[in-house]
């Protein structure tokens, strides 16, 4: 499954993107979408969006260009241009797009200026790092690496940025430093959609988080002890505890979200949903809300993953009755909240309709896009299975109306689900009725027991014979030959002890030839 | 395993060996000694074994008496089993003195098994001689061979090398049904002291047995026989085991509609080999419509032909629609014949024929209405009280058998030695002993101790 997704992912990136519909049926509000993000995250999303929505390309390209001007990565212009050109190709004649330079005014002077500034900055930082290194001051070296990493990141050289973060690690003196490093690396990995490596840094961050929390706690205790009155001390301790719990929560939320994105990217939806719903309130996301992932996107990721994999009771307990999640995330996307409510109320037609309605919105989320098809399929299957569960028989026609499909479509879906074992039932093709499977438990048990008995006896018999053979040392051995031949006979490619006549294996080989004849002939006769 | 016989034999040996050792220079003397009183089977065997000189023994045994009479006329198969056996085997294997067919047949019907077991080498020679003597007309050898197979071992669960010779003869003569009574009893015992067994005898017997059963379309038994060959202990797998695995894969497709993972004690090398073979490709694709399967095996037809398995492959493919229909019964309650035909790649009329035949043999439980609609009913297997009783009885037998095996093992010398040596150390779990050679398991445990 992972493999498929990867392939899909790459082909999509390679340029076989389809054009997404944007109309009254599939509403999409670019301005609102843009307003959720800033900086590189915004540019990345726009670059992702442009080829798929040629109708919005002009507006998006302008917004992106404006954003790029306020940054210092000149290569983004090139990315934007190639995305725009792809939009032109995808749009074809239906959506005539003016040439790129008419839409975006490429400011060559700015590019030169920024490139020069970047060069200066780099030189400056490198000299600084060199000085620090020769002075052997750990903390300064760490900061030198950090500054360089941040610099490289801002100009879009992620590999070098990661390299500096990796070097920085040995100069970390407190667990807070390790945490900072991990969070920064996670940001880069998420931006890069390098899902497989995310868990490594989450695992690295977790012990650091524990260590830093306990360090904070002990420091509060000492400061509280030195306070004048016991009462004041208690209050102070309370306040500071709240503060560091909040600090801790901030990191924890980021780690959960990163884990969620990683699981989603790798196709384990259930784990992704579980990680997302563990995240703390939206406020703890801090700058991540605009730079990495917006709360409304978390709501979408979490809900779709949960609907596709969670039990109904889990959804109820972990999403609808999870106040933090509802207040922080679900509220920011009202239709998602409705989606969950409809699901819990069994209004599957509405669920599927709204999934279709917002498919454009979903397909434009970079982490979700490659999995959208799978998730939708899973949700459909789940819906059908849930719908059927309380019934003994259902008319396919009725089912079709409940889901808003045609009868044939319904039948196909149901048959697929039966074959995959998601529904225990059988279809009456003539009466167009789906009947639940009635198993005669008693007969089933008898049959299973009988079979188990038979299998066990047969296995016993075979194993006993094998035991006796071994006791009598009737073990197939490689024929005694020169060492070289023996080695080759142990290689798997060699079908068996080789051809030469002398040894036992060769004998077996000849024997086999003698024997395969009769059956070949006999079965040829049977035809 | 006949401990009583062998200890008794050893005991008698010292007493009886001396007088028999000397004289007996020619066949007449031998005959006189054989027919005389005061002989025990062991002393007779020793006398025969040391008869004449090594070079002349066979020729002497195969000769006639001084009066020109055939010694076999005088000896009786029951009373003089050993003498008869030695002379008969010599006659069969020495050129120019073939015994009369009646002598061979009557001996095989009438010999005394307990005596004959003292000379397993002569039994081997006899069996080979019978096959050789029959020349192109192997079917004449079947009767005597079957008599030996049935009468020679202490009971029918023992394997002898004559088993393998007999099965080969059955297949060469294409008389498959003759082998069935022998194949019906599974082999459970191996005793190298009553028969000169080589690992090939076991492999050949079970492989040939599988071939016979498959030719008679007794798929379930054939599967078991092939599986025994595949899982026989091997340091390096033999070619015949690989051939058996190929056939096993095909038989399982016929039997279950899908390949079954071989048991984990099967040799890994074999499993790796089959993974890259066309057999695995076919197994993975199975079942699909006949047209699709034919297209899939197209490029491997030559391989199947070269392995002499193409007939089986064809049968496997012919059965594919049945498996597809069987699968439909899990999904549908009613279905038109035309729909069935479309699903399995057949015309409606062909589909009707297949469905009918499946109903007849009880593979599915269904009815066809006049307008061509098929209704699949649930097929819940029913068991009568007698079935359950029989199953219980089998289980009890099995439990007893296992208990006996365990006792025998517990009292065996090797086990007791080991138990004594490692009395104070922790014992490995059952699985450990089963997967790793005992020596390895011990070594590991002593590390922990």
Automatic annotation (TrEMBL), chain A:
Signal peptide: none annotated. It is found in: Cytoplasm; Nucleus. Residues 478-513 are annotated as: Disordered. Keywords: Cytoplasm, Nucleus, Signalosome. Residues 270-441 form the PCI domain. Gene3D superfamilies: 1.25.40.570. Pfam families: PCI (PF01399), RPN7 (PF10602). It comes from the Eukaryota. Belongs to the CSN1 family. PANTHER family: 26S PROTESOME SUBUNIT 6 (PTHR14145), COP9 SIGNALOSOME COMPLEX SUBUNIT 1 (PTHR14145:SF2). This is RPN7 and PCI domain-containing protein. It comes from Phanerochaete sordida.
UniProtKB/TrEMBL annotation, chain B:
Coiled coil: none annotated. One of its GO terms (biological process) is ubiquitin-dependent protein catabolic process. Keywords: Cytoplasm, Nucleus, Signalosome. GO terms for cellular component: COP9 signalosome; cytoplasm. It is found in: Cytoplasm; Nucleus. Residues 302-369 form the PCI domain. Residues 59-267 form the COP9 signalosome complex subunit 3 N-terminal helical repeats domain. InterPro entries: COP9_N (IPR055089), CSN3 (IPR050756), PCI_dom (IPR000717). It comes from the Eukaryota. It holds the Pfam family PCI. Residues 430-449 are annotated as: Disordered. Belongs to the CSN3 family. This is COP9 signalosome complex subunit 3.
